[in-house]
Write a structure and sequence with these properties.
The complex is a heterodimer of chains A (198) and B (227). Chain A has 198 residues and is of the alpha/beta class. Chain A has helices at residues 14-22, 52-60, 63-70, 82-85, 185-195; strands spanning 2-7, 28-31, 42-46, 76-80, 90-93, 96-99, 106-110, 117-121, 141-145, 147-151, 158-160, 166-171, 174-177. In chain A, strand 1, helix 1 and strand 2 (28-31) form a beta-alpha-beta unit. Chain A is globular and about 40 Å long. Chain B has helices at 30-39, 54-60, 62-65, 100-106, 144-150, 175-178, 181-184, 195-203, 214-217, and strands at residues 3-11, 14-19, 23-29, 45-49, 72-75, 90-93, 116-125, 128-133, 138-142, 156-161, 187-190, 208-211. An 8-stranded parallel barrel of chain B has the order 1-4-5-6-7-10-11-12. The chains are: A alpha/beta (198), B alpha/beta (227).
Chain lengths: 198, 227
């Protein structure tokens, strides 16, 4: 297994790097213009601390990444927060918009809440097929987002928050998480262990 | 989703308690404080540079901060920090809120709108809400319109009771009477918290509370069923 972090140069990958280090997982980082031979043993991570429209515009200029993601040339793809949002068909944020990578049947747009969604919330851990995570004392994960993923149609691949946005996505070898497992304490570390099959 | 976080005032790797926005008391080592907060499962941790040099403090304490698996916010010269390369999710700004050009820059923060908060130490004086401007080192009167304009560039606010900071059960709940509901819903409150004040801010629909007294925080009872 090899783990690759995609860094389009917008946002912040350091917390995800620290997450992987805590889990004792070796990884490499690819930036815009880089490419690599990916196989069914490759786990690609798209971190997302940042502006989703800027992220989408940056990654759209990275031909290798676009082609690899859209043709599913990986073992697993994990999109986190803005990294999850840009997997959608289209992203909208504060009056701007951009095409997403189109591998998730959804759009990402500004939340309709008067405040952005910040804080700790329980999510359906069984959705990730991870019953073992129930042993962790704090059963909440950390959210910090002003935009959210809205499915284009009713689809069991999405786990939904009661406020109407997707908290998680799991279909085939694509995983999306609106929350930040890298900053969700012990549960986030356990999720990482589960998804990265360590 | 009420959040309870903690603020650490940092200088050269050591943590201090500020009393009434004027005195400093030495508390201990930064790494010990961080570990305590992580153990007590703080919802968020604010790391504030007392010297306004948070960029330097982040570099000096990078080994400690890289171990934290909880959300981190920074303040004290945050506009000089390169947020795109630090293990932080959000930043608090004060002087930027009093400067049109700085506010314009905040609109294009690389971490997005959700990453910016306004940090507003306050006093209630002569029936006015007065907030602190760190550049001018003085308190100035503000109103709901001023706050809403700042609310266009920062997602939330932290209101620190500068008079009662460091105390216990003395936070001035009257601030809630000076703020419109939409601002309260986007605000953390801080400064002299006790359980009764915690209940008041929760009832008012606030976003959260920031513990400003690290020794209080180590007593986790305050987080047990605050309502």
């Amino acid at each position: 297994m090899s783990v690759v972090i995609l860094n389009p140069g917008i946002g912040n990958i350091r917390s995800v790097e620290n997450w992987l280090k805590r889990l004792l997982i070796e990884y490499s980082v690819l930036g815009i213009g880089d490419n690599a031979n990916t196989t069914t043993s490759t786990i690609m991570i798209m971190p997302g601390v940042g502006d989703s429209v800027a992220y989408a515009n940056r990654i759209s200029r990275w031909e290798w990444a676009v082609e690899t993601i859209q043709n599913r040339r990986f073992g697993r793809l994990i999109g986190i927060c803005a990294g999850f949002q840009v997997l959608c068909n289209h992203v909208y944020e504060r009056g701007r918009d951009a095409e997403g990578l189109g591998v998730i049947p959804a759009i990402s747009k500004d939340q309709t809440l008067s405040t952005a969604h910040n804080g700790w919330t329980e999510v359906d851990l069984t959705f990730l097929d991870a019953k073992s995570l129930r042993d962790v004392p704090r059963q909440e994960v950390f959210f910090n987002h002003a935009c959210c993923v809205i499915p284009s149609c009713s689809d069991d691949s999405f786990s939904m928050d009661k406020l109407g946005f997707a908290t998680q996505y799991l279909k085939g070898n694509i995983v999306g998480m609106q929350y930040h497992p890298e900053k969700s304490g012990a549960l986030g570390d356990a999720i990482g262990t589960h998804l990265l099959n360590v | 989703m009420f959040r309870v976080g903690a603020q650490l005032l940092l200088k050269n790797g050591h943590v201090f308690q500020s009393i009434a926005f004027s005195q400093l008391i030495y508390l201990g080592r930064f790494d010990v404080a961080i570990e305590s907060l992580s153990h007590n499962m703080a919802d968020e941790i604010i790391v504030t540079s007392l010297d306004g040099e948070i960029a330097n403090e982040l570099k000096k304490n990078s080994v400690i901060l890289d171990q934290v698996n909880l959300p981190l916010m920074i303040s004290g010269g945050a506009e000089k920090a390169d947020l795109s390369s630090e293990p932080v999710e959000r930043a608090l700004y004060n002087s930027a809120l009093f400067n049109e050009k700085a506010m314009s820059r905040l609109k294009h923060s690389p971490l997005g709108f959700q990453s910016s908060l306004g940090y507003l130490p306050f006093r209630l004086q002569d029936h006015n809400l007065r907030v602190y401007d760190s550049d001018l080192n003085r308190f100035t009167d503000v109103d709901a319109s001023w706050l809403r304009q700042r609310g266009e560039v920062v997602q939330e606010f932290v209101f620190l009771d500068a008079v009662n900071q460091g105390g216990f059960e003395v936070f001035n709940e009257e601030i809630l009477d000076y703020l419109p509901d939409d601002i309260v819903q986007r605000s953390y409150f801080s400064g002299g918290i006790g359980k009764s004040q915690l209940r008041s801010v929760i009832a008012a629909g606030a976003a959260g509370y920031i513990i400003d007294n690290v020794s209080l925080y180590s007593n986790a009872k305050i987080f047990e069923e605050p309502c």
